[in-house]
Every structure is written in C-alpha cells, then in structure tokens.
Design a protein that fits this description.
With about 350 residues, the protein is α+β, with helices and mostly antiparallel strands. Helices cover about 45% and strands about 20% of the residues. It has helices spanning about 10-15, 20-30, 45-50, 50-65, 75-80, 115-125, 150-160, 160-180, 190-200, 205-215, 225-235, 280, 285, 290-305, 315-320, 325-330, and strands at about 10, 30-35, 40, 90-95, 100-105, 110, 130, 140, 145, 240-250, 250-260, 270-275, 310-315. Helix 7 (about 150-160) crosses helix 10 (about 205-215), helix 8 crosses helix 10 and helix 8 (about 160-180) packs across helix 11 (about 225-235). The two termini are about 25 Å apart.
Length: about 350
C-alpha cells in the first residue's frame, strides 16, 4: 500500500536534526490534524483526501508508533495489495492475548471550533482495534508486517458479511494463483491449510459462513466489483457463472466476458458485465481514449456479442448495492434463480 504524500512524521524530522516546535504550534492553532502523537496532516489535505488516503495515513502512523505492530483482517489485505469492498473503519492489529482485544481510546484530534474542525470531527477517524490470535505467520510488505494471505482470508471469512469476505477471498485466490500456489480452476477450499483451519474453528456457524466464501473464491475474478456481484448472485440464489469466457466471431476476438451463464436465456446463454465507473473516469484505464470513445467501443462490443446469439446484461455498483435491482436485471435477461438458494450469510 502506497502512503500518500502529506503525512508529517515528527520522529523522522528530528532524526534529520531539525526542530518540530513549529509543527506543534500549527497543531495548537488548528492548522494540523493529529492522527497519533507525533503524526500530523494539514487540515486542508485531510479534508480534500479520499477515505482510503486518510486510512493509509492512519495505518502508517500506527505502524511507525507501535513496536512490533502486525496488521490483520482488511487492514492486512490492503497492505498486501488485496482489494476490499470499502475502506475499513478501524486500523486492525493483532494481539496474542484475548484480554487485550478490543478498540483502543482515540488519539485523533483537531483543535478549534471552526467549520473545518467540526467537519473533520463529524467525518470521524480510524481508531485501533485489536484481535486476539496467539499464533500466526506474518508477511512483510514494504514497511508493514501483516498476517499471511490465507490467514487474512480466513479471518475475514469467519467474521464478516458475504460481500466483504468474497472480495478479499477472490483477491487472495488470484494472488496465490499468480504465485503459482493455486490452480487456475481451483478454489480456496482446495488449499490444504484452509481445510485444517476450518475444522479448528470452534463455532459451527462461522465455519459454515466461511465455507461458502472459500468455496466460491476464484482466481479468475479481476475486480472488487466482480466479486461483489458474485456475492449478490449467491445471496439471490442465481447460479454462479463461468468466468472470463472467450468470445470470437468471424472478425476475430471479441473479448472475454466477466460472466457467462451457458444454457440460460438464449441459445448461447447470457453474458453479464459489471460496468464500473473507473473504466470511464480513470484516464489510466482508458489507454488514451476519451470516456465517450470507451463507451462507444463498449457498445460495438456488446452488439457483436448479441449478434452471435448471446443474451446480454450489464449492471453497475448501484444495482449491487441494492440486490433487488440486480435481481430484476438478471430476470429480465432470462436468468432464473436456482431452487436451492442459500442466504445463510448476510449480504
């Protein structure tokens, strides 16, 4: 995880031989936000920053000020390069002792009663939360130490909602596949260490929740939006589709679909696409094209797929946030829920 510029680390400044009196003065005058003792960000930078940037500053401040800090759960996922559904609400850390688990008193502070200070306080911060895990292998990513990928996937699968857990589990599966530690067509349940850890967990309900997530986790999922959609399919009772199905016509390669449901809707089945905003808004993903050009190419691609005899359905974040809207989209494309649907995991 990259740390955005703007974090003021007074210990690092003192190591250069410089003084930090002016920083403390700026904090007292309401010009700086104090994340933790010794770590500050300018008020204007904090207000302009996106949630993940504020979280990254908070993680860095905790990591540099707490000896032996080991990140876990979604905090560990982020520093490991694994996507999460949304920015965590806490900086999550390990403790070997059950008695030390829980949330810590906040050290975040901004001085003054002006509009900026009030807005910062109302938006909140990212306090520490400790989780007890006596024995865990750790990995190092840059300046951070965190739980290993499998432990991270397990911890989240045992404890969080289906949608949050599957985003991380899919990301872990993809990372393991890229390392050569997992089969392209396998799931996390096929990994020996996962099975043993499942059986060791003391709570049956948590084991059942985790088993659903880990069975679904697949290395061919390419984005958090696709994982989020797959969690919604499971929650709504639709069959899990084939991933990255290659489509060709007489003109050659058309593309790889996010999802394909063979045998449903039309003769060649139904192609589904998660349409994230990033492909239009992020210049780095447009390869020099304008948003309008990207949209036009997407339309041409969709027409070629339909001309081959596929059904086609497209949705975005708003549809998955409200699964009933996605359900109507899928039904309209000719898909039908399976009879054995399970909603054991809250979405």
């Amino acid at each position: 995880m990259d740390i955005p510029s703007g974090l003021i680390d007074t210990s690092a400044i003192r190591r250069t031989g410089a003084r930090t009196d002016s920083i403390h003065s700026q904090f007292k005058s309401g010009k700086l936000v104090r994340i933790r003792r010794g770590f500050y960000v300018e008020v204007s930078h904090w207000l302009d920053a996106r949630p993940w940037e504020r979280f990254a500053w908070s993680v860095a401040a905790a990591n540099r000020s707490i000896p032996g800090a080991i990140l876990c759960r979604e905090s560990a996922a982020l520093v490991s390069g694994i996507p999460v559904l949304r920015t965590p609400t806490h900086v999550e850390l390990l403790t070997p002792h059950q008695s030390q688990s829980g949330r810590r008193k906040q050290t975040f502070q901004v001085m003054g009663d002006g509009p900026s200070a009030k807005q910062i306080r109302s938006n909140g911060d990212y306090p520490l939360r400790y989780y007890a895990l006596p024995d865990s292998e750790c990995e190092t990513h840059g300046e951070f130490r965190c739980t290993g990928l499998l432990q991270t996937a397990l911890d989240i699968s045992f404890s969080t909602r289906l949608s949050q857990a599957l985003v991380v589990a899919d990301g872990v599966a993809r990372a393991l596949w890229k390392r050569g530690e997992m089969n392209q067509e396998g799931s996390l349940l096929d990994v020996d260490a996962i099975g043993a850890a499942l059986e060791d967990h003391p709570h049956e309900a948590a084991r059942k929740r985790a088993r659903i997530v880990l069975r679904l986790a697949h290395p061919m999922v390419e984005s958090a939006g696709e994982s989020y959609s797959r969690a919604a399919f499971q929650y709504l009772g639709f069959e899990q589709p084939v991933l990255q199905h290659e489509i060709k016509d007489l003109g050659g390669f058309v593309g790889r679909s996010d999802f394909w449901w063979p045998g449903q809707g039309r003769a060649k089945g139904v192609v589904g696409e998660f349409d994230g905003k990033a492909k239009y808004a992020d210049a780095d993903l447009r390869n020099g094209l304008t948003a309008e050009e990207v949209l036009y190419r997407e339309k041409l691609r969709e027409d070629r797929i339909r001309d081959l005899g596929y059904g086609f359905v497209r949705w975005g974040w708003a549809h998955v946030h409200n699964p009933e809207r996605l359900r109507q989209k899928l039904l309209g494309a000719g898909l039908a829920p399976s009879l054995g649907a399970s909603r054991r995991n809250p979405f």
